[in-house]
C-alpha cells in the first residue's frame, strides 16, 4: 500500500490559507470541489466513504456542524466499487450487534438517503463444499442463535432441489433469508449527498495532508491550502487511515487488500440469492437487469496507489464461476475491477475513541466487509461524538488492542479466521 504522505498528530500545520474563515457563511448543505476556504465546524471528518458520509448524516441529524473532506469523490473508493453484499451471515460474533443495527438501517434506506439503492433482501446462501464445511455452518448457526438471522441449514439433496442451477457436487448450505445485496455505486455516493442535503459541508478533491490538536481543537490542512478547525476529528480514511492514526501516536498494522471482481453481460434470471462459500474463494449475485456480479481472488496494487485486476487471477476466477454456476458457461464477462480496502490482521475494524487524543475517533480497517455495517458505524460515531457513548458494544474494536500486542500480549485466536470480501 502506498498511501499519500502527510503529517498528522504532532505535525506543524503548513500551507495555511490567508483567506477568511467561512464559518459565518449561511449554513445550507454544500457539496463542492477543490475549495481553498478555511472553515470551522463541530466535527471534521476525513474520508467520504460510506462510513464518513453516514457519520456526517447522523451528526447533522443531531444538530452538529460537520465538514467532510475527501481526496477524491465521495464513495469512489472501496464503498463504491465493492461487490454489494449486504449480509450478516458469516460475521464474527463480536460484529453481530453492529451488523444487527445496520440491518435495521438498511431497511430504512429510502428514508435515509432518498433512493432504494437497488437493495434487495434476496437471502444469502453460504455454500459448503464438504461435510466438514457443512458442520462449520451448523456450528455457526448454533453459536449465533439469538441474533435473529433465522439461519436454515440445507443438506445436499435440499440444495439441489431448491437451487438446480448450482454445482450439484456441493455438500449443502446455510440460508439467511433476510440478508441480501445492493448497488454500491448508487448507495455510497447517496449517503454523501444526503449528508450535504442535511447541512453538512462536503468537500471533494480535498486531500488532507496534516492534522493535529493545537490545545484548543483540531487543525486539519488540505493540499489545496484550506485550514479546517474542529472540536472533534473522525478518521475514516479507509485504507489510508492507518497513517493518520500513526500521526497521533497510534500505529496500527493496517494493510490494504484488493478483492477481484467481474460482471457478466445481462443473462436470463436464474440466481435469486446472493452466494458465498464457507472458507471463501468465490461469491456471486445477479441483479435485476440480469448481470451477474462475481468476486473471488485478488487484484494488485499499483505504484500510483490504485489497484488493478491481476491477469494471472482472471482464469482462476472464470473457472471457479463456471464450475459453481453452470448457467454462466459461455457467458461474456464485460468488466473486471478491484478496489483498495483497509484490512486489519484480525479482520475486525478499528472503531472508537483514540487512546492518545481526546476528541479524535477512528473508524477504519473494515477488512473487506464494511459495506453492510458502514451505516451503523456512522451512527455509532455520531453517538460517540454527541453523547460520549454508544449502546452498541464496540469494545472488541478498540485501537488499544494493537498497542497491547506491540507490548507482547498473546495474539488472538481469531486472527486466522476465514476472510471473504462480500
Ligand atoms: C472490491 C471490494 C469488494 C467488497 N465487497 C464487500 C461486500 O460485498 N460487502 C461488504 O460489506 N463489504 C465489502 N467490501 C468492503 C467495503 O467496501 C468497505 O469495508 C467499506 O466500503 C469501507 O468504507 P470506508 O468509508 O471505511 O472506506 P472508503 O470507501 O475507502 O472511504 C475512505 C475515503 O477516505 C478518503 N481519503 C483517504 N485518505 C484521505 C486523505 N488524506 N484526505 C481526504 N480523504 C481521504 C478516500 O478518498 C475515500 O473516499 C468490499 C471492498 C472491496 C474493495
From TrEMBL:
Please give the superkingdom of this protein's source: Bacteria
Region Disordered: which residues? 1-35
Short name of one Pfam family for this protein?
DAO
Q: Which GO terms describe its molecular function?
A: oxidoreductase activity
What are the coiled-coil residue ranges? Answer: none
Ranges where the FAD dependent oxidoreductase domain occurs: 42-384
- Record's GO cellular component terms: cytoplasm
Q: Does the keyword Oxidoreductase apply?
A: yes
What keywords sit in the KW lines? Oxidoreductase
InterPro entries the UniProt entry points to: FAD-dep_OxRdtase (IPR006076), FAD/NAD-bd_sf (IPR036188)
Name it: FAD-dependent oxidoreductase
Q: Which organism is it from?
A: Bordetella genomosp. 13
Amino acid at each position: 500500500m502506498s498511501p499519500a504522505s502527510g503529517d498528522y498528530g504532532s505535525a506543524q500545520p503548513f500551507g495555511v490559507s490567508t483567506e477568511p474563515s467561512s464559518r459565518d457563511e449561511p449554513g445550507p448543505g454544500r457539496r463542492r470541489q477543490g475549495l481553498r476556504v478555511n472553515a470551522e465546524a463541530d466535527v471534521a471528518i476525513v474520508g467520504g466513504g460510506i462510513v464518513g458520509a453516514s457519520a456526517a448524516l447522523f451528526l447533522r441529524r443531531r444538530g452538529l456542524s460537520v465538514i467532510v473532506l475527501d481526496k477524491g469523490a465521495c464513495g469512489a473508493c472501496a464503498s463504491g466499487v465493492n461487490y454489494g453484499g449486504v449480509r450478516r451471515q458469516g460475521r464474527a460474533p463480536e460484529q453481530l450487534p453492529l451488523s444487527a443495527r445496520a440491518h435495521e438501517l438498511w431497511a430504512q434506506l429510502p428514508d435515509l438517503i432518498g433512493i432504494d439503492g437497488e437493495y434487495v433482501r434476496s437471502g444469502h446462501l453460504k455454500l459448503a463444499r464438504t461435510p466438514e464445511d457443512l458442520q462449520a455452518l451448523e456450528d455457526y448457526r448454533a453459536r449465533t442463535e439469538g441474533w435473529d438471522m433465522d439461519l436454515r441449514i440445507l443438506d445436499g439433496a435440499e440444495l439441489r432441489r431448491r437451487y438446480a442451477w448450482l454445482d450439484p457436487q456441493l455438500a449443502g448450505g446455510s440460508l439467511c433469508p433476510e440478508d441480501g445485496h445492493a448497488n454500491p455505486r448508487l448507495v455510497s455516493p447517496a449517503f454523501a449527498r444526503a449528508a450535504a442535503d442535511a447541512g453538512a459541508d462536503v468537500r471533494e478533491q480535498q486531500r488532507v495532508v496534516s492534522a493535529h490538536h493545537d490545545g484548543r481543537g483540531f487543525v486539519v490542512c488540505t493540499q489545496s491550502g484550506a485550514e479546517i478547525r474542529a472540536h472533534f476529528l473522525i478518521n475514516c480514511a479507509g485504507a489510508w487511515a492507518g497513517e493518520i492514526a500513526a500521526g497521533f501516536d497510534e500505529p496500527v498494522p493496517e494493510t490494504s487488500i484488493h478483492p477481484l471482481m467481474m460482471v457478466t453481460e445481462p443473462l436470463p434470471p436464474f440466481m435469486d440469492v446472493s452466494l458465498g462459500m464457507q472458507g471463501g474463494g468465490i461469491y456471486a449475485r445477479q441483479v435485476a437487469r440480469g448481470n451477474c456480479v462475481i468476486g473471488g481472488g485478488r487484484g494488485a496494487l499499483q505504484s500510483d496507489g490504485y489497484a488493478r485486476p491481476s491477469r494471472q487471477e482472471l482464469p482462476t476466477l472464470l473457472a471457479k464461476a463456471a464450475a459453481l454456476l453452470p448457467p454462466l458457461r459461455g457467458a461474456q464477462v464485460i468488466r473486471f475491477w478491484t478496489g483498495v480496502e483497509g484490512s486489519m490482521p484480525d479482520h475486525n475494524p478499528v472503531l472508537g475513541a483514540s487512546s492518545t487524543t481526546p476528541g479524535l475517533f477512528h473508524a477504519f480497517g473494515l477488512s473487506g466487509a464494511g459495506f453492510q455495517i458502514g451505516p451503523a458505524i456512522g451512527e455509532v460515531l455520531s453517538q460517540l461524538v454527541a453523547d460520549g457513548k454508544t449502546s452498541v458494544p464496540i469494545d472488541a474494536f478498540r485501537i488499544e488492542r494493537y498497542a497491547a500486542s506491540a507490548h507482547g500480549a498473546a495474539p488472538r485466536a481469531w486472527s486466522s479466521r476465514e476472510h471473504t470480501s462480500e
